[in-house]
Each structure stands twice: as C-alpha cells, then as structure tokens.
Automatic annotation (TrEMBL), chains A, B:
The gene is ilvX. Transmembrane segments: none annotated. Keywords: Thiamine pyrophosphate. Residues 1-106 form the Thiamine pyrophosphate enzyme N-terminal TPP-binding domain. Belongs to the TPP enzyme family. This is Acetolactate synthase large subunit IlvX.
C-alpha cells in the first residue's frame, strides 16, 4: 500500500467519504488509489472554486467534513475564495493540496510556489506531509482538525513522493475536542442583562441560530422581553413551518444601525459582534448603539445550546411556549410584475418540504427571507464570507450531502458568473438542483454602494463597470453548454409554471428570471 | 482630488493606460475616478483570473504594464493562479487590490483576510497604502517595480480610506533600473564552452529567445557548431517567415532528457536551467546530462541581447548569416482526418501576418510549433507557469494591447473551462480573437501522466476523473451564452472553411474542433 492509498483508506475509515477534486499530475496516485479503496465518492469539478465551495455546502448539510483534492499552489489559489467563505461559515474541510515531490521542490519547476504561504490565511490547521510512512497520520490529524468545533479548514499538503512511496496503512483519527462549556460568568452576565430593564437583543449565529438553539432563545426572549436577531450571514438556518421565525441583521449599513439602535444590551450567542460589512465614510465600524453593552454568552467555539439551556433555566424560561411559524404557506401571487416580492411569495408557496436553499441572491433576495417564514420546513444557507461565487458550488455540495432533498439555488447573475462551471458537475452527478438566476444584468449591489461610500453622480465609465448588459449573458445557452437544461422566464406566470416544472422533476435545471 | 483620483492620474501619467478590473465596494472610488481622468481604459472582467491573465497577455505584447483592480483578499485569490503564470512569464503588472479602510480592518468584517499573506508568493514588490496623501507615491513606486527588468508583479493594496480621503496629486514614476550587464567572466565562460570541442547548447529564454537575441544566438551557433533550443515554455517568441526557427525543450520528461542528452556544455541565456515539470519516480529533477557543465551567460534579469552581442564578437560570429525561415508557407492539407498534425498545417497555412498566437494547447498542440516555422510572421505566447486557465484571458489582454493584430487562441478544452468567462470580455470590448477549442473531452495530458508517475492500469474511477465527456461541453452554446458566436467542426474541410471565415471577419469567434 503506497502513501496515497494509506491516506485514502484513512479518510474513509475516518468518515470522510466524499472528495471534491480537480487533480493534476502530482495527485495521480491519490486518484489511482480510488479504484483500490471502497467508500470514497470522488466528485470531479472543472475549477477548484467549485470543489472548495462544494465542500463548504457539503459540510453545512452533512455536519461532517468532505475532502478536496487540489493541484499545487495554483489549484489551491483557485479554491481560496470559497475556502474563505468556508472559514467564515466554520465548515470543516479536509483540504488536500498536491505538491511536488519533496526532493523536487528545490529546483523551482514552473508550478512551484509557496503553498503554505497561500494556505495559511484560510487554514486553522496546516501541515506539509514529510514522508509516505507518515502521510496517513497526517491525514488523520487533518480530519480531527477539520472536526474540531465549530468546524475548521484543515489543509494537508501532499508531496507526490509521500503518495507514491510505501505507506503504513490506516491511522485512526485522534480524539476531537468537544465544544467548551460557556463559563458561569457569561451566564450571570446574560442574566444581568436580561433582567436589567434595558432593551436587550439576543444575537444568534452558528449552532444557536440553526433550530434547537433558536427555539430555546425564543423562550428566553418570551420570558424576558428580549428580542431575537440572526447574524446578517448564517451558515445554515433550519426554518419554515414548525420553527421559530427570526429576522437577520440587514446588509445595508443604515438599516443595520437602525435595527440595533433600540438596544442597550446585546447578548452574543454563537454570533460575532455586528460590524459594518464595509467601511463607509462618516459611519461607524461597530454597528451597535454607542451606549450598548455587549455580552458574550457563548462564542462560536463553545456549546451554545447548553449555554442557552442554562440561561433559560436561570431566567425561568423553560416552560415558555414561543410563537412558531404555523403556516399556512403563503399564497401564490395571482398576477402582477415579475419582481422581488412576487418571487419571494412564489418561493414561500412552492418550496417543497426538506428543500435546501442556497442563497446568493444579494440585492434581489433581501426580502425573500421575510416572505418564507411560513414556507414548508427547509434549510437556508447563505454566503458567509462575502466572497461571491459560492452559490452554484455550495448547491452542488449540499446536493451531494443530501441526495433526497431538493436544492434550490437563489443566485445573483454577476456572482454566478464566477463559478458557473459547477453546473457541469451537477449534470455529471445527476444532482437535484434548481438554479434560479436573478438576471438583472448588473452588479446591482455596487450601484447602491457607489452612493454609500460617497461616490455620488457616477459617470458613464463607472456605471459601465457595474453593467453586465453588453452583451447580455444568455443563461439557458450557458447552462446547455454545461449539459444542464435551462429556460428564461419574463413573466410571473411563466416563472410559476417553469419553477413548478423544475420542482416536479429530478436533476439539475436552470431558470433565468428576467428582472 | 481624492486619493483614488491621484492614483489613477499617476497611473496614466506613468504610462499605465489599461486597467483590467473586477471591482467591489472597497474599489468604488477608484471606479468613480475613471470618469474624471482621461486616458485610462478600464476593461471589465467577470472573474479576477480573467483580469490577471489579461494583464499578463497585455504586458507580453505591449512591453509595458497594465494594472488590475481586484476586490480584497478573495478577489486577489481568484486572480492568483494567473499572477503565478505572469510571475513565471516575468510580465510587469501593477496589481491593485482593494482593502477595507485602514481603521476598519481591526473589526474582522466578513471579507477581511490577510491580503499581504496571499499576495506575497506572487509579488516581487508588495505594499499596503497607509494614507491618501501617500497613495499616488505608492502607485508610482508600484509602476517602477512592475517595470523593473525583466518585469515583475507589483502588488499595491489600496485601503478604501486611502481612496476617498484627500490625495496629493500626480507623483512621477521613480527611475527604473536598467537591465544589468552580464559580467565579463560569464562571456569568457561561454567562449570557453563554445571553443571546448564539446557538444554545446545555447538555451534561450526571456528576451534572448524573442527575435533579435535569437538571431544573434543563431550566428554564434553557426560559427561554433553549437545548437539552439528554447525553453519549454516561453512568454513570447516572435517567429515565422523571416526569423530564425528554433525548437523548444519538449514537455514529456523522457523526450526532454533525450533532447539534452547529447550536450556537455549548456549555456543559459535568459533561460533557467532545465528541470522536470514534475517529479517522476526514478527520473531525475535536473534534465541535463549528469556530465554536462552549465554556464549562465545572462540571467533573465540581465541584458541578454548585449551579452549575446559581446559573445558573438568574441567568437567572431558577427558576420555569420544563419538560416532564416524563408517560406513558402505550408500548404493546406488537402484531405485526411481532423487530427493534430493536419491542424498544425492549417495554422501554418492560414495564420495571417502579425497574428498573436496564445497557446494553451497542451497535448493537442505539441507539434504545432514545428509546423509553423514558415508561417507568416507572428508572435507565439505560451502558458508559462503551468497553471492552466490562462489562454482565454491572455488572448483577451493581447488583443487589448494590439487592436490591429489578429489573436488566435489555441486552447485545450479542460483548461478553457477554468476561465471561459473571458469570452464575455472579448464580446464586450469587440476584441479580434479567434478561439480554437481542442475538444477531446478529457484531461488528456493526465492520461499520460498516470503512467509517467507509475500509476499503471488505472481503474474506472481514476479514468473517470480525467474524462470530460459526461456531459460533453457544448462549446458553441457556451460561447453564445457569453455573447460570442461559435461553431463546432468535425471534419478537416469544415475546420478550414470555418477558420477562414473567422479570420476574414473582425471580433471574437469560437470554433470547437472535434478531436
């Protein structure tokens, strides 16, 4: 058994059963080992950003890491943007990067680069394999690191000779630390805030927002009069009928400041303190009111559910019965233009039970969340790190993780153009993904941002840099190019018809929604 | 004048007249300044790898740097693979990366990352702007660094407040060092090699291979009996009728070792020592014969032309008249299958004078070079750093640099799928580019590499990882999606007809060549 086979066997034995790959020469022994090892599904991606974004989507839905397989420094580079998003989502990923044989690196061959340097900014754990006999142990350590709460990007660099020289067999995964318990001081501080008489906000992120944590937080809110708010971007929220509805911190800076303005106590539960997505001249970086005191009940690394349970007990909220979304589903809009709110209502009405929504809607989708509180139960995954181009890959990975659930990718057009190649992987793997492209033919978000940063009265060159209408991207053609059926719809009735059709069948389908 | 405007004015005054951009919020003031400053052509790319690859192609043809405009760490990340190629091609690029306002970085907003860490591996020069009053001087220093021979990637990180706060006007570009003169010892060592009676190879790269240097090297070879060989990958060779024909070091390891085997003296002129593109078990990293002595006449940083002139004088070769390609052009193949050699002959026959060939052919194109020595005069640009996905972007940049020359992009299909978005930029800018897609529906190069690295008898999973036929990419549909007309050809006669048509018109056109 060579090093590559010992690594693949260690991955499978350690529960890493999917590899999103775009391999090259230095990874050929890993690829060859796939035929000698049962249990590893290797999913080919045409571009590394597709592989890393899929690994992120997979981890969010499977709650266990997939691996990637990337080709040297440039392959890693192409995957970095979605690793950045994965890092912000706290997704566990065993990120495997091929490298020249150890003895070959000194010769500065054309593909040689500083892989560790490139990997460091996105990696919580980083190691270069030194020998074939040690590579399985390196892989086992990488799995443990990827699984370390709340989930981490663990990068293992795999020199070619550590793959082809003799390996040492399977190595078990070392113990993974459990989430730390929030300390009693944090509970006491939260109790003090909740009983202070001051307007108080429970700000939820990570596991606290997903479903169970949110439900306990809602009991606390009901008992104490506190309000609930999710972070602006969340890795995953399980929501819809039967769950506690929650709004998110708005993206636009003025709305975000306005949402936080009433509160004088802010309790963070799995959330980080609210900061401006960007800096804007004359506006603060910290969004909470200057007189607001911030308390951390539990960090993303800590056990937020357990902390919420202790807090609920402390304030006597265990027996509360918070409002849950009880349906009925929203009605389909009967007529009117094909615009954002109508689309949101269609989503709320037609989304099937168990749907996984991968949301990279940006401007178009700002109200979708509010319009789908009463939809059938579903998971909602967001762009977590602000690096656009995650939607199609993330939907791909979520569909691999959950083959029996319908994936609906709500996708801004400009962002889709970063990583549209992942449509091909959806076709190849027969994944059940409906992609809805919001075709406004612009970087619409930036039109607002020009004014927000004080660049008023933009001229034609500036406007041109934000426009995608010359030429207009023909999305059904693009989808067909990648082997995916697609349709363009220009009316609300057509959208409803075609979306229903797409939901009624299995396999990838793309709808370009003209806005 | 704010900092952004002072920077744009400094760029234009410093001769940087094109910006390949994919901007975001933090770059909006740079974008807004474009309307207040004449002379900067801003070319929108849908993906940052398209921007950096275009800047590489531009620099290779214009011999002066363009700038990029990228959005924070993730935007830079997406551009890194083609910056790696640019670094290997020694292309000068003013690589501008937006960043959060200086005071905002501490808050770890979602898009915050270690931009310097990400940029360092590809950047010969790297600076983060600290103030709006200093940003123009930073830009001027970046231009000087990008222009420093032989050409460098200079990364300037532009915090948003250095763009929007008041700037200080135009700053002139500091003096750029000239190429250093090769020392006399190097000339003497080369003379000794050439007069040693041992078989000697002049190995040419960088400027030495382009045209004038190659012509002087050919005189030296003719006088001394030495042979000429270009590097395996070259940033640019100006070749065809009227120039000295030269072959390149082959890519496959055994052929490369075989090509160097006869030589006992190797004189490097703008070339680096030949090393294996990858490591292969049981094969050496250094490709020259173990008994071969290597002499450096001039490094890529030094003045190779001047060194060759001194060497020619020293060996009495000035008056030699080396063989030049005198035509006639190759005949069109009359009939036969649509395969590699026939395609090479069609290229040789039909390529128009002044064509710029952007070659990312990989396996399909291994004989194209040999079949086009007698073609009309043209420039030939190669994948320099081994990071696939440069072809379509590089062709885009070359077409921006040389609007009156026909660009012909010889493009492997697997590699094209990394950065096909650049077709859209070709349509938007009405660039005169013919893209020829070698549609073998596989990572064909890796099929050979499996065996080369000793992974024999690959199973179906391994073969599957190298196959792109399920689904087959429909290239004309993909091109149409991006606003570019395309056709698929399946016979030699059709290829000739459609290629002629594409050459006879202006504007982008794509031909999927079925192999």
């Amino acid at each position: 058994m060579n090093g590559a086979e010992s690594l693949v066997r260690t991955l499978v034995a350690g529960g890493v059963e999917v590899c999103f790959a775009n391999p090259g020469t230095s990874e050929m022994h890993f690829v060859a080992a796939l035929d000698r090892v049962d249990g590893m599904r290797c999913v080919l991606c045409l571009f590394e950003g597709g592989a890393t974004g899929a690994a992120d989507g997979y981890a969010r839905m499977a709650d266990t890491p997939a691996s990637t397989l990337l080709h040297l420094g440039p392959g890693l580079s192409n995957g970095l943007a979605n690793l950045h998003n994965a890092r912000r989502a706290r997704s566990g990923i065993v990120n495997i990067v091929g490298e020249h044989a150890t003895y070959h690196r000194a010769y500065d061959a054309p593909l040689t680069s500083d892989i560790e340097g490139l990997a460091r900014p996105v990696s919580a754990w980083l190691r270069t394999g030194l020998s074939a006999s040690g590579i399985a142990a390196d892989g086992a350590a990488a799995i443990a690191a990827a699984r370390t709460p709340p989930g981490q990007v663990a990068t293992l660099i795999l020199p070619a000779d550590t793959a082809w020289e003799p390996g040492n067999g399977i190595v078990p995964v070392p113990p993974v630390p459990e989430r730390a318990r929030a300390d009693d001081g944090a509970i006491a501080a939260a109790v003090a805030a909740l009983t202070s008489g001051e307007p108080t906000l429970l700000h939820l992120g990570d596991r606290a927002v997903r479903d169970r944590g949110r439900e306990i937080a809602a009991r606390i809110a009901q008992k104490t009069g506190a309000k609930l708010l999710a972070m602006q971007a969340n890795a995953r929220i399980d929501r819809g009928a039967g769950t506690v509805p929650i709004e998110r911190l708005p993206y636009p800076i003025d709305l975000a400041i306005g949402a936080l303005k009433p509160f004088r106590r802010l309790i963070l539960v799995g959330a980080t303190r609210p900061v401006g997505f960007f800096a804007y001249p004359g506006k603060p970086s910290l969004l909470a009111h200057p007189d607001c005191e911030t308390i951390t009940l539990a960090t993303p690394e800590e056990d937020q559910i357990e902390a919420l349970e202790r807090l609920a007990l402390a304030v006597g909220a265990i027996g509360e019965k918070p409002r849950i979304a009880a349906g009925p589903r929203p009605d389909l809009p009967g007529s009117g233009p094909l615009e954002d709110d109508a689309i949101g209502r269609v989503l709320g009405a037609l989304m099937p039970e168990g749907a996984i929504v991968c949301d990279e809607s940006l401007t178009t989708g700002r109200n979708f969340f509010a319009l789908t509180h009463e939809a059938a139960p579903h998971a909602w995954l967001q762009l977590s790190g602000g690096s656009i181009g995650v939607g199609i890959p993330m939907a791909t990975g979520a569909a691999v993780a959950c083959p029996d659930r319908k994936v609906i990718n709500l996708q801004a057009d400009g962002s889709a153009l970063y990583t549209a190649q992942s449509l091909w992987t959806q076709a190849r793997e027969r994944l059940d993904v409906v992609t809805l492209i919001w075709s406004n033919r612009a970087y619409a978000i930036l039109r607002g941002e020009l004014a927000n940063v004080g660049a008023h009265n933009p001229g034609p060159k500036a406007i041109g840099m934000l426009s995608l209408d010359d030429p207009a991207v023909d999305w059904p053609s693009l989808a067909r190019g990648f082997g995916v059926e697609g349709r363009r719809v220009e009316t609300l009735a057509d959208f409803i018809d075609v979306f229903r059709h797409a939901l009624s069948r299995r396999g990838p389908f793309l709808i370009e929604v003209a806005l």
